[in-house]
Amino acid sequence: MPMPTSLRNGSYRRWLSEDLSTLIESKELGFSTVNKTYLRSRWLVQILQLEQDATRARKLHQALRLTTVIGSLLLLMFVTLRFNDTLLGGWAGLVYYLTVMMSLAVAASIAVEHIFNYGERARLLAIQLDKLKTEGWCFLQLSGRYNRFGTHEEAFASFANQVESLSRRDAGEVYVPEIVRDRRVESEASANVPEKKPHSFSPTATPERSSVIRTSPTTTTTDRAQTMTHHHVEPESIQ
Q1: Closest CA to 119 of 68, 165, 45
Q2: SS3 state at 121
Q3: Do 99 and 78 form a contact (C-beta atoms < 8 A)?
Q4: 10 Å Cβ neighbour count for 102?
Q5: CB 132, CB 115: distance < 8 Å
Q6: b/e map of 216-226 (b: 16 or more CB within 10 Å)?
Q7: What is the pLDDT of residues 113-127, one digit of tens each?
Q8: pTM to 2 decimals?
């Protein structure tokens, strides 16, 4: 199906849906009714949804970045004009309110971009979309991992498993919040750290002896005498 001229007006998703639907219904591929339903309701719907989400996230990211950049430049200009109130005349009050509003707009755009992270989301969605498209075209052409199959019906089970595997893995990368992802990475890293074993007591180990002789309060006089006798050093003999 040739690409229609209406694509210039932003109807790419409509053309993609019509083109792939026609390909799925083609008698040359010989899909069964169940397989056609899966291709339309699962694979094609995911592609169209990802296309829409990626486009929306990219536009929001660009709008927020433009707001931040242009607003910062205008804010700098307004602040500079505020130092020369005599040149503004009766416009000083308007410039003041514009400065406040522009500063709020810049701060809000930075906060929204930081919280929702539309730039990273658009990138991950585009990667997931490209993976699903590549997997579908390899399956339809029986190339890549599907070149060992003789027909599309024989390769369909492998294709369905691959699509579900990509959907589960990439959905976690795109929709899991950053804080949950960081905690998961930290928990995995801590699980890989080897556990320190406690020091075991060895009966043959010789503890360090203190030079000071300590006696318990219950030590008797005889025991003290024996201890002092045991540690008594004989004086040198006088020649």
Answers
A1: 68
A2: helix
A3: yes
A4: 21
A5: no
A6: eeeeeeeeeee
A7: 999 999 999 999 999
A8: 0.64
